[in-house]
Amino acid sequence: MDFTFSPQHAALRRMLRDFCQQELRPRAAQVDHTGQPDREILRWMGELGLFGVPFSQEYGGAGAGEIGYCILMEELNRVCPSTAAIIGAHIGIAAMSLYLDGSPALKRKYLPDLCAGRAIGAFGLTEPNAGSDAAAIQLRATLEGDAYFLDGQKMWITNGPIADLVMVLAVTDPALGAHGGATVFVVETNTAGFSAGKPEKKMGLHGSPTSVLNFDDVRVPKENVLGQVGLGFVTFMKTLDIGRVSLGAATLGGAEAALQASLRWVKARSQFGRPIANMQSIQFMLADMATEIEALRSLVYRTAWLVDTDRPFVKEAGMCKLLGSETASRCIDRALQIHGALGVSREFHIERGWRDARIGEIFEGTNEIQRIVIASELLQEIGVRIRP
Amino acid sequence: MDLADLSALLGEDLAAETFSDIWVVLPGHEAATPAGAAVLAEARRLADALGCYVHAVLSDDAAAPAAVAFGADRAHITADAVEYVSGQNPEFVLLPAGLNALAARLAQRLDSGLITAVTAGLDVDPDTRALRGSRPVYGGDYLLDLAVTSPVKIATLDTATLPAAYADPGRTGETLISDLPAPEPHARDLGRVDYHPPAWRPLSKGRVIVSIGRGLGEAAGVAQAQALASRLGGELAGDRSARDSGWIDEAHEVGVTGQEVAPDLYLALGILGDTIHNAAITGARRVIAVHANPAAPIFQAADVCVVAEPSAVLPALLAALG
Amino acid sequence: MNIVVLLRALRDPASFSVNRRAQKIFVHRDLHRLNPADHNALEAALALAGASAGGSVAALACGGEPAGEALYQARAMGAGRALWVKDEALQPADGAVVTRVVQQALARLGGADLVLLGADVLDADLAQVGPRLAAAQGWPFVEAGYRVRAAPASQGRLQVVLAKPGGYQAVEIGLPAVVSIAVDSNKPRYPSAPSIMRAYADLQALDVVSPAELGLDQAALAARVDRLGESFPPERTFGERLEGTLGDVVAQLAARLQR
Q1: B31 pLDDT band (50/70/90 cuts)?
Q2: Where are the domains of chain B?
Q3: Which of 3.40.50.1220, 3.40.710.10, 3.90.1150.10, 3.40.50.450 would CATH assign to domain B203-321?
Q4: Which chains touch A (3 or more CB pairs under 8 A)?
Q5: A117: left (phi over 0), alpha (psi -120 to 50) or beta
Q6: pLDDT at B11
Q7: Which of A293, B113, C73, C182 could serve as C224's disulfide partner, Cβ 3.0–4.6 Å?
Q8: Which of A91, A82, A331 minimizes the C-alpha distance to A202?
């Protein structure tokens, strides 16, 4: 067993650490306060190839695999969860679905722009009446001649207001529904009939715009079918499976930032005549944080290794998302407690981190769904099939 | 002790043998500056222990009396120090750290080892005659203990860490003048240029920070603090109270709610120093604090404390620094 | 203009802590990075080569694995070539030895019009390599340049901006030359993620040689400076008060600030 990162992944992390600390960190509070993504830094990140880290260089990616992508998400989320969410939705689900199941022609058409950040991607699954029950989607795609016409609505779409391309799941055969009757389309958002709603007012991730997407008879050429007609649900589930690994990596970064801030504070803050680091109640919180973070780190990077070496990873990916989001929430909550009143100050990043972390337990499959995924994988191993 | 005393004491005529002597290279008027004087005094200290002479290599004979007064037995005047010293068969050569490049050229010429910017432990191993010295690394986090073992040994001294030297006007020494021509200058001076270094390093990486707080009193002090920051080659920052007073912006607020800093020098003027502020300066190598309140918590985080009104200290300090 | 930039890798300051009371260095992680001023020198080299037609940058480093990593970084940032004089013993080596190695390496690289390197070395007494190399080659040396660019009027000359008390000043030198670059002067570009991966995928990214292959025997590598060990500054004390009249206090303060 070798638990070291390869030299190229270590070099990638060094670059990302420098970039995030020097360039992204100073802007994180501003991004949160204004609720606006920082377009300039996104453009810069595109130039540095950060919008295509896991994908092969053939399509303009960096070729750093899932491990490289996890490093990216960990480092981004350490300093700016809003920016991490933009990149996560763009790479982890939008571009990933195209990368996994798109035809070579479709990949050649869109991936280079996606990888360079010239086009920002979004992933359209959730609808007003379909969340965890993704199979209940209603957005309709009708074939007329050489094009489909999409009609309906998507909701809670990360990157919705800023996306240039949306990978959207639509019903092509209502009789079959999600199981054989749903198809993924790549929709250019400048197409007539498409519109994004106003950014939602959320508890956290203020700099990552989320909105409704309206499809009003949007014409999509047949060539923009991603994968096979009717098998879109499979593509999306596969994409979400892999996306959970990097989501776990992002939560790892958030938890680490909380621990780092706490360590600095307990050394500096004195009460009852001694640094609070000397108090056992504080030490126990630090020890628990560090232990959970180390467990998460091992799980995340081992799972990324499973992905990169073509081994089965679905169960572990669900665990990454589940353990990661709950670990991050717990760690940031403890950090807030350690910081006392300062922890709730809106001038301080712990409060922002606390707000930003909570969605981790909800989006890209709630933690309840993760438990179902993990259980179904476990039961399948003993011959019991519970997934519909 | 002068030359005659030393010769008498050792019972031999040392003047005939210059190998094993200490040469101090001080072009220009260096010998008359505190830095040059401090190096001469160090050379004198070593020479007294070793029983050898100190030679000062100068470029201007006007500096010779000062060189002798501070410890040289002989002053050599030359326009080409590297060439001249190379022909003198020295065993030890000392220079101030401001002349590191010259020292390196000399070391290369004499195929000798060189320690630069020695701050502590300068001495000669009595058995091996190695020249030992310690010099800081990682900005002073620790020191490397080094020993030059080549036949010729060269070191430059960080003169700021040396004690002030005192002249002995009664000392005597001879002056020798060489007629070596000055070397061709490599660089042609183009004079002043209008160049502004891009300010790309965030406050968190600043090396000198002058930081202000409400204890500064009037807004008028802000301009003076800015002038002091410029004079010290640093940046102006402040604590939360300074930001609330509109004296500094968010990017220049020092505190865990703003920027954490780790400069070589942090000068706190009128900053009371709560945990939010003090926790953000734990990485500073040296903290100097000025505040009127003797109980200000900033003094617990400061190496050097001045209990006084910052508004009174600031103009006087600016004047003193010139 | 063929530019050679000399790089040193050192232990990342964030990877260890110094305990003055225990007189010990505690290394937490095995992390190395480029000497900060060398990073600025590398950027200066890349910018200068980019601005001049036919400019090329070769990176050169001596030492063990960290030196190799520094060279991969240089390739990822845009250096066209990299030469690694691979020898663990060269990591702590002294100025005279490194200078000798660099001289031989320059010959292997086919010579240079300009050698750039950092004006400060954080972890070792190696800032002397620049002026030593210039002396050994008989080339001009300029210390702590902020900006380097080709002289506009004359071929084969270089303008270097230097910091002087009260402002900046320019000098012009003939090539070939050695110029050390001031720390914090040229903001290093970030290597892109694809270029990092490409550098490591390229089996020819680094030209790796041993000192012996450069014609250097043990005698040539014999150190002139021995490293005896480390020592530590006294433990930091807080709360020293300057006493006296305002004039006395200000005078003491000014003296300390001038250090």
Answers
A1: confident
A2: 3-177, 203-321
A3: 3.40.50.1220
A4: B, C
A5: left
A6: 47
A7: B113
A8: A82
pLDDT of B186 > 90? The answer is no
CATH entry 3.40.50.450 includes domain A122-233: no
Q: What integer best gives the mean pLDDT of chain B?
A: 90
3-state secondary structure of A16: helix
pLDDT value of position B1: 46
Domain over A7-119 is classified CATH 1.10.540.10: yes
Task: Say yes or no: ipTM exceeds 0.90.
Answer: yes
Domains of chain C (ranges, CATH numbers)? 2-257 (3.40.50.620)
Give yes or no for residue B4 having a pLDDT over 70: no
**Element at A216 (helix H, strand E):** strand A210-221
Which residue among A14, A19, A57 sits closest to C194, beta carbon to beta carbon? A57
Interface contact flag, C193 A47, Cβ < 8 Å: no
Q: Could you say which of A66, A292, A326, A364 is catalytic?
A: A364
Beta carbons of A267 and B279 less than 8 Å apart:
yes
Give the residue from B188, B231, B260, B314 with the most C CB atoms within 10 Å of its CB, the best one to mutate. Answer: B188
Q: Positive or negative, the Cα torsion across B179, B185, B191, B197?
A: negative
CATH fold for the domain made of B3-177:
Rossmann fold (3.40.50)
Domain B3-177 and domain B203-321 have a common topology:
yes
- pLDDT score, position C57: 97
d(CA A90, CA A69): 12
Tens-place pLDDT, residues C201-238: 999 999 999 999 999 998 889 999 999 999 999 888 99
Return averaged pLDDT per consecutive 10 residues of chain A, 388 residues in all.
Answer: 93 96 92 93 97 97 97 97 97 96 96 97 93 88 96 96 96 90 96 95 94 97 96 94 96 97 91 93 98 98 97 97 98 96 90 94 93 93 79
**Is B122 near chain C, with CB under 8 Å?**
no
Question: Could you tell me the two tokens for A216?
Answer: 């009003």
Mark out chain C residues that contact chain A at CB-CB < 8 A: 33, 69, 72-73, 76, 190-201
Q: Does C248 touch chain B (CB under 8 A)?
A: no
Q: In chain A, what are the domain boundaries?
A: 7-119, 122-233, 235-381
> Nearest Cα to A50, choosing from A107, A12, A102?
A12
Closest residue by Cα to residue C165 from B237, B322, B59: B322
Residue of B nearest to A271 (CA): B275
Q: Which residues from C are below 8 Å from A72, CB to CB? A: 193
Give the span between the Cα atoms of C43 and C185, in whole angstroms.
9
Query: What confidence tens digit (pLDDT) does each residue in A278-307 have?
Result: 999 999 999 999 999 999 999 999 999 999
Find the mean pLDDT for residues B221-244. 92
Residues of A in contact with B250 (CB under 8 A): 29
Q: How far apart are CA C77 and CA C100, in angstroms?
A: 27
Contact A265 B279 (CB under 8 A): yes
**B107 and chain C in contact, CB less than 8 A:** yes
CA distance linking residue C167 with residue C161, whole number of Å = 10
Q: Would you state the pLDDT for residue B107?
A: 97
Summarised one tens digit per residue, pLDDT across range C147-165 is 999 988 778 899 999 988 7
Predicted confidence (pLDDT) at residue C109 exceeds the cutoff of 70: yes
Residues 32-71 of chain C with CB under 8 A from chain B are none
CB atoms near residue C99 (< 10 Å): 24
Q: Is A364 a catalytic residue?
A: yes
Contact C56, C4 (CB under 8 A): no
Collapsed DSSP state (helix, strand, coil) of residue A237: helix
State the pLDDT at residue C259: 64
- Inter-chain CB proximity B276 and A342 less than 8 Å: yes
**CATH architecture of the region A235-381:** Up-down Bundle (1.20)
> Minimal Cα–Cα distance from C173 to chain B, Å?
5
Neighboring chains of C (3 or more beta-carbon pairs < 8 A): A, B
